[in-house]
Write a structure and sequence with these properties.
Structural class: alpha/beta
Shape: globular
Strand content: 15-25%
Number of helices: 17
Helix content: 25-40%
Amino acid sequence: MNGVKAMGDTLDADLLVVGGGLAGLLTALGAVQRGLRVTVVERDTRERLGGLARWAFGGMALVGTPLQARAKIPDHPERALADWLRWGGLNPADPADRWPLAWARHYVERSRPDVHDWLRGLGLRFLPAVSWVERGLNGEGNSLPRYHVLWGTSRLLTLRVIAALEQAASGPRADRLTLLCGTRVTALDWTDGAVSGAHAVDEARGTVLRLRAPQVVLATGGLNGTLDGVRAHWPAGQPCPAELLNGAHPFADGALHRAAMQAGGRIAAPGAMWNYAAGIPHPQPHFEGHGLSLVPPKSALWLDASGRRIGPAPLVTGFDTHDLCRQVAAQAQPWTWQLLNRRIARRELAISGAEHNPRIRERQWLPFLAETLLGSDRLLDQLLRESPQVLAHERLDGLAAQMNALSGGPHVDPAVLQATVDAFDAHFVPGQGLRLANDDQLRRIQHARQWGPDRLRTCAPAPLQRRGDGPFVAIQLRLITRKSLGGLVTDLHSRVLDAQDRPLPGLYAVGEAAGFGGGNASGRRSLEGTFLPGCILTAQAAARHVGGGTTSA
């Protein structure tokens, strides 16, 4: 890959890609393979190419795959689309949903050949079990398991894409790609109503660079990379917690969304966002306010700041993330607690992302299998060492004291915490098991355990105070931001559209910048695992269309 030859110069290309995340790199790869000369501008360092995909877990919602067929899951696009529209609330009768609906249909129809099969062509594989997430509280979510996990996480996908891009722009074709890292695009340029490039600045040197190209792809991530942006777009009438953690990236600040709007583009659903309810501060933060998103154990009790179970319906992960966030955001304090014990943590505690899943990331099959079947103390012990928000004690009154010390006040009455646990444990009647239990969390756990892959990661129900299962563990959680579900409205070529659905000449948007297609392909909530495939599909669409079918040698 070429670098900047002379700062302050004007650089010419057939295509300018703004953003070196996964969607931007994939767009550049497709364009370079077609023979176009491409300039990629990335604000971060060369080592962080790939953006958040480099640290993501690699879960993907896919339809009609061989793994599903092997597990006798009768999935097909029309069934998946029905789930998608019901869950996301997209309305075929609403003109505003025209392009989100078109992208939703494109996704479910093309995720098998254009995502699954394409990834297999890169030499990537999936874990052999398909998980069942976002089932809905009343079965209105995923009607079937669809969640596939990349073996090697999306970090491996990112590295494979970078390697393919380097290969495509090597040898005599090296002049087809110029990569500018540490460079921020500050404005789009327009000539006679068509995009003609951009102005950028090298942030280390402060040098201005003119980037000329008749086509520009915005791959800049979402609108909500800063917490100020999140609060500005927070849905009206819904409570927003006083404290939030950032699981996005501060460079995804929406600046070029606004530049596109000034040229006539439009943004759909800026208040639609995909957050998570169970965040803790990152022990080694990459930026200010950086958080980690836990996969909260289903068997843990989710408590409010006083130590009482949140209700009336208990909070249980895996069914409706959007609802979890809504309930957590409505709490009187900006934190909640998960109460569990070591037995639960060994099998169910997890953190979303590549960093804290080394067995999957490094493709260590035998250790991964052993931890899946037998459980592991590794993550809990790491969190107890590194994260002040993770507490452990052999007694509930001692744990309550630790919780109050962390939160800075007598929020948790030890007697209240004891009564909460006693009430849950009372469902387990000696000699009768759960036959007479009337608890929605226990029902959901039993439902989850009916599906084999989820049974492996979900404990059999048992009292929290059962002898030998301690110590008790409490984790202080905050809502953590993640994805913008809204973005620039695009057609099926990833072209940015104006208010009359006309393409802005030469301007494209891909990935999260396009709301993963059409401006808001997921609607108000995602079936989960739709984001990485959305990056792939929107990038493929842009790469096919740029250049109008022409190439330059």
